[in-house]
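Researcher: I'd like a candidate sequence for this fold, 162 residues long. If you have to choose between options at a position, lean toward the conservative one.
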């Protein structure tokens, strides 16, 4: 027959229970601190993701504006096709300063450069080259906000027949 184990005095049982209770409380506190740390890192990651998303959305918006602005000058050139074919709209280098108004061509170019700079910022410049009825319109601007601070200019190029 098996004998019963010797009984443990009640004071020892209470001390042993208190030690187990203290250990488990301390262990739970460590678990909570680790959970808070993991949660904080996750929240920082979400905030960084949101900032990147906003930056990329702004860059995409500016690209869309650039495409619309190339189409606007192309439509002005189509409205004055004879002047466009002989090269009156040509800006052989990137032009950032709006030319003085006067005739139809000068007013179109002035309005176009002004719209470029109001939509894409003061760094926006435009270039137009036509070879007979084939024209290429280029717009360049500083997209450092969209590229995370790099100073690489963004460019939109549209080629079309007038």
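Model: Candidate sequence:
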């Amino acid at each position: 027959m098996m004998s019963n184990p010797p009984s443990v005095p009640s004071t020892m049982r209470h001390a042993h229970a208190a030690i187990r209770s203290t250990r488990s409380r301390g262990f739970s506190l460590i678990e909570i601190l680790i959970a808070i740390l993991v949660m904080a890192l996750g929240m920082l990651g979400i905030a960084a993701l949101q900032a990147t998303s906003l930056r990329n959305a702004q860059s995409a918006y500016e690209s869309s504006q650039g495409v619309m602005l190339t189409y606007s000058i192309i439509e002005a050139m189509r409205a004055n096709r004879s002047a466009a074919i002989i090269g009156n709209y040509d800006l052989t280098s990137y032009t950032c300063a709006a030319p003085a108004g006067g005739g139809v061509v000068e007013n179109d170019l002035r309005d176009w450069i002004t719209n470029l700079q109001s939509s894409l910022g003061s760094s926006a410049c435009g270039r137009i080259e036509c070879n007979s009825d084939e024209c290429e319109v280029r717009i360049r601007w500083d997209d450092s906000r969209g590229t995370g601070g790099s100073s690489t200019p963004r460019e939109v190029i549209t080629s079309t027949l007038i």
